[in-house]
Amino acid sequence: MQQLDHQFIDNRWVPSAGQRRLPVTNPYSEEVIAEVTVGDPADVDSAVAAARRALPAWRARSGAERAAYLEGFAEALTRRRDELIRLSSTNNGKVLAEAGIDLDDAIACYRYYAHQARELDHRQGRLVELEMDGVEARCYHDPVGVAGLITPWNFPLVTSAWKLAPALAAGCTVVLKPSEVTPLPERTLAEIAIEVDLPAGVLNLLYGDGEGVGAPLASHPGVDKVSFTGSNRVGEAVMRAAAERTADVSLELGGKSPILVMEDADPEQAADWVMAGIYSNAGQICSATSRLLVHDAIAEPLYAALAERIDDLTLGDPLAEGTDMGPLTSARQRDVVRAYLAIAEREGLSAVRDSRHRRLPDSGFFVAPTLYRDVPTQSRLWREEIFGPVLCARSVASEEEAIRQANDSDFGLAATVVSGDAERARRIGRALQAGSVWINGEQLVLPETGWGGFKRSGIGRELGPWGLSAYLAVKHLVGPVPS
Ligand code: NAD
Questions:
Q1: Are 231 and 213 in a shared domain?
Q2: Are 200 and 306 found together in one domain?
Q3: Ligand 1 mean position to 151 CA, how many Å?
Q4: Of 7, 257, 372, 448, which has the highest C-beta tally within 10 A?
């Protein structure tokens, strides 16, 4: 069994200062595949000190030089594609096709920020247009400093790419803390750092949980910026810790995203998008479209099409070709979802499909793909993030009602609009309170477009130029026009 008892600091694997150990489990076989030693605050001190030492030389490099390292990451990930897909599948329970999409998204992100790093060189020192004569102002972008990057377990290689690539492009040095549930895929990033000869201390990686590493990292005086992806509960704690020293934070938090299906949509096509929005990655997607608002006129044909597709889903070994849905990533998450199913039972929700309609595989943290219809808007299942393969649906009488109910949520991460009229779909999309709105499609996330939420779904944006800005501080040099 693999022992993860070393931390990656200054380009070396050094013994962890922590004593506690946690098992890392294959969620399909339920076997323990590794053991991770939980780091402690002394590890955080060492990693932050290494990042601080590395900062002056790294920030002094040109964007083009930093871009070359990011290209190296993209190439190394590409070379390890098959191995990493299997590893994600083994540690997360992802089916092979989805693990492949994740990896390609991560690779695209490193490439995109290599390009952005080069562009940054051209942006430095640009003249600002002024009203005042005789004065010159030039704009520069400095890295914010040492960044603490904290990631969750549902998309380890993607969420780390969205932080690491722009942070390195900007000239920041980093301490990355992967989730203790899925520490294996991100380990590769440390191996790649050595492979591409990244200067020591630019990327440090710490294993541990929230108590041992996450909280000490978020509150460390040597960390200038914390970028966090995860739950609202922890995100708010991270923000409080950052507030103590006025440090910058970016938060990518939970969601309860709607999918609106209008009466002019084709129910069969709409059903495919609804399925992709909730049952991919066993529903463990922050942007899962987990609230279906369907127009009365096509509600029945849509529910029938969904029931048919849910029955056709193959649950099983995520490593096997032909599996559509793997297990949830942890027993803990399976139990969280089960607790919501028990609430649904107590609330008397009407299930189109649930565990009564299928036999689950003998091993693995599975939850049956579930669809409730006519869910009241005050139900906890309608309002709270479940983070599993549970779709809640209700029908609406008009476009206005669909928009109103879609926006009646604490969250605002994403949304989907399905309509036979693309113009109408875009109009509806403009009225929705969400960072990403998919028009006749699902879960298409591109490195060039921003990612992040309205309302309680977070603060700031990742991806696109906004993702780079999150690691840059703007500076102006202002003075008389040189003669
Ligand atoms: P989590 O909040 O439990 O953990 C996230 C990370 O924070 C882990 O690395 C964990 O070890 C660490 N952590 C725990 N306690 C901490 C503390 N006190 N201080 C600092 N760090 C701490 O979340 P999770 O269960 O790993 O992930 C699921 C959540 O992530 C869901 O709510 C999901 O919506 C959200 N998520 C959001 C996005 C997005 O882009 N908005 C993407 C993926 C996941």
A1: yes
A2: no
A3: 6
A4: 257
Asked if 340 and 381 touch (Cβ cutoff 8 Å), the reply is yes
Closest CA to ligand 1's atom 15: 210
- Ligand 1 environment, Cβ below 6 A: 150-155, 159, 177, 179-180, 209-210, 214-215, 218, 229-231, 234, 237-238, 252-255, 286, 385, 387, 413, 453, 457-458
In a domain, 452, yes or no: no
For residue 414, the surrounding DSSP H or E stretch is: strand 414-418
CATH number of the domain residue 168 falls in: 3.40.605.10
Residues in a beta bridge with 261: 294, 418
**Residue 35 C-alpha to ligand 1 middle, in angstroms?**
20
Please indicate, yes or no, whether residues 434 and 466 belong to a single structural domain of this protein: no
Does 370 share its domain with 467? no
Cα 420 to Cα 187, 265, 298, 439, 478: the distances in Å are 45, 5, 13, 10, 54
- The domain that holds 348 is classified in CATH as 3.40.309.10
Same domain for 345 and 422, yes or no, is: yes
Q: Tell which atom from ligand 1 comes closest to the C-alpha of 232.
A: 32
Contact 288, 325 (CB under 8 A): no
Backbone phi and psi for residue 386, each to the nearest 5 degrees, phi listed first: -95, -40
- Give the model confidence (pLDDT) of 438-458 as tens digits: 999 999 999 999 999 999 999
Catalytic residue among 252, 385, 442, 462: 252
The reported pTM is: 0.97
Same structural domain, 237 and 140: yes
Model confidence over 193-249: pLDDT tens digits? Answer: 999 999 999 999 999 999 999 999 999 999 999 999 999 999 999 999 999 999 999
Hey, what are 324's tokens? 């559509």
Whether residues 128 and 264 share a domain: the answer is no
